[in-house]
């Protein structure tokens, strides 16, 4: 004998569900309300101008706007207000470095951060001449000496750098640079 299909129930689905689980008989209790999850942390502020300058410098280096330095090339630069003989004296190693920073073998990002911090600290303490060891880049995985080109780019764009030049071989040669810093220049 066949049973007749059940009559359709006029109750809505939510009411039927509560009846099925026994909510209407007090067998089920509601979960306590929970607080909203914590908001995602805000991103750290970044220096947009420095990032833009770095990106622009990388693009210029890639497209040849700035000629990349090779392993044996000497670094050399002076501001217009610095007499040419100062650059010649730097090249001869006639200035004594008061502080030294060795970046040799560091990853480029770490080296750049350390270089900027070092120069800022030297300026704060009135240091006039420093030596930065960047290495010659002969063991670089890339074809160009990465740290040497990075140091050249950073130094050229700093207002507190008056002049710089690779010293004689006895003081580091093409693997280092002597830098003259201004006392009150900005950046």
From TrEMBL:
Gene Ontology molecular functions: DNA endonuclease activity
PROSITE patterns in the record: SMR
Coiled coil: none
Superkingdom, taxonomy of origin: Bacteria
Annotated stretches, region: Disordered: 23-59
Domain Smr: 101-182
Composition bias type Basic and acidic residues, residue spans: 50-59
Name of the featured protein: SMR domain protein
Species the sequence originates in: Pseudoluteimonas lycopersici
